[in-house]
Amino acid sequence: MAIRTRWDPFQDLRSAQDEDEMAQVEQMTRMLTRALGQGSQLQGVAASSSTPAWAPALDISERKDAYLVTVELPGVEFDDLQITLEDGLLTIQGERHFAHDSSEQQFHRIERRYGAFRRSITLPAHVMADGIEATADNGVLQIVVPKVEEAKPKRIQVRQGGQQETVEGTTPAAD
């Protein structure tokens, strides 16, 4: 059985500090660890309920006709992805499996994240839900969310009160 340990960036600081400063560094380490989503050790390398979920990096950009959501998903089977739009919330979820479950390998460091993930993005109200398209290439998912065409302004002509316009060949109705 291989023993896995996580790299601790604050270990050098702890060894050089007195008790009060060391307690502050440990508190800062816990907060940073929680913020980075690394709250627990890997146990058997498989994702468990105590292992925090990971979140793939994504970019959101805008064109005149659409919003573009680009998500980095290396190692994720695109057939296992679920993309939904409900009440203006675009949700991308799936799972990246740990592929090296061999007893012949001994791991010294595991920094890549595995397990289930879920990313949700609130979209503006003026998008066409029926026109959303998703494509995948080289571990990158791209979702195109088309915008609704803007309503063209209608010019309304102001007439003087009480006068009706006559249309060619007709006469205004009598009161």
Task: Write a concise synopsis of the structure shown.
This protein has 175 residues and is an alpha+beta fold. The chain has two helices and seven strands, in the order ααβββββββ.
Question: What would your notes on this structure say?
Answer:
The chain has helices at 11-15, 19-35; strands spanning 58-62, 66-72, 82-86, 89-96, 115-122, 133-137, 140-146. It has 175 residues and is of the alpha+beta class. The strands form two sheets. A four-stranded antiparallel sheet has the order 1-2-7-6, with no helix packed on it. It has a three-stranded antiparallel sheet with strand order 3-4-5, with no helix packed on it. The N and C termini lie far apart (99 Å). Residues 39-51 have low confidence and may be disordered.
- How many beta-strand segments? 7
Largest sheet descriptor: 4 strands, antiparallel
Strand content: 25-35%
Rg for CA atoms: 29 Å
Structural class: alpha+beta
Low-confidence blocks of residues: 39-51
* SSE pattern, N- to C-terminal: HHEEEEEEE
Cα-to-Cα separation, first versus last residue:
99 Å
Mean of residue pLDDT?
76
- How many helices? The count is 2
Question: Helicity, in percent?
Answer: 10-25%
Principal-axes shape call: elongated
Strand arrangement, largest sheet? 1-2-7-6
